[in-house]
Amino acid sequence: MHFAYLLGKVAKWLLGCLLLLNIRAFPMVWHVRVFRPIIYIWISQFVFNMKTIFLSKFAKEKAFEQWIDSLTPIGESPFRSTVFRSWASIDESDYNFHLSNSSYAKALDGARFKLAAQLLPKFLIAGGLIPLAGTHFHFVREIPILAKYEVRVTLGAWDDKWVCYFLTYVVIFPPDFWQQKANASKDKKLSQENVSPSFFHAPINSSGVSMTSTPLNSTTPVPPTDMDKIASKLLAREEPDGATLHTITISQMCFKMGRITVPPAVVFAANGLSVPLESESNLDLDLTSLDASNNSYKKYSHFNPPPHWDNVNKIASKLHGGSIKKLQTFFRGGWRDVPAGDRWWEQAMGGAVEQQRQRNLNTLDLLRKGMEGARDIR
């Protein structure tokens, strides 16, 4: 009897550990992870309602509009990015003790939805949907079990009809990255305090590793060949902040209001996204050059909204004669009734944003054409 009791107790502990290790696979856990940004908004709205419960109708509507606008990225670049953090749990790893292929898709769901909640709150509040048309993976290296990783997602490009490309970069920081960064910061501070700069002092690579593909032990310097340069770039695969790139994905998505497809430019402009207020004429554009972190990007703001924002308020704001219902009607096809010369979303998505879109689209659209061409291969 004692042995049977002990065996039952051990079985219960094993069962409890098994359930705990697989808790992220439980029903509704995926939904909580993906819809977490919306849950935060619901909680914020509940708190707002409690705070304004004794205000007059007009004051409450005004406060509500201010609250909605605080969530809206007025004046931001459409090429904004966000970070979704996760880790390779046991239930999401395969027999090789790496993050399984299917688990990447689960992480991308959360990352894309987080970016959508930040970029397009008015579209989501109006009942808009963002269905996925396809995702393409390029695996650079595996993610070990229990490793923490970041999914960095950004808007890449869109066409004039419906296709919208989202780019994601799955990265990992080295285990001792933050400690090394802290030590480097301390060393830099000490060197600035104790060593006076000299014109004759050449920069030294403190890591002791050559930054070129040619060893530095030769008495005669040999310039690297083109193949050396290419190999060096392929082997590095590091992000600017020191993270190591593990996976790149490209997702094709579209915007729907019911069964009606909404052009991406209309959705972006209606959510306050805009061309920069001012940008340098010699701006070297790349996939993220119009992100808010770029110093050359001077944007509009909530206090200085872009010119087209008055048009959005007339449609969506109760204080300006609009409503959510009118915004839904506009997304369902009302934008077609706006005369060609008065289409404010074209102005909002013009200039430097249009240049960036065209440049990115020329590259990313090759993927769509390749996949469509694959249909004819049998």
TrEMBL record:
Cited InterPro entries: HotDog_dom_sf, THEM6_lcsJ_thioesterase
Family stated for the protein in its record: Belongs to the lcsJ thioesterase family.
Protein name, per record: Thioesterase/thiol ester dehydrase-isomerase
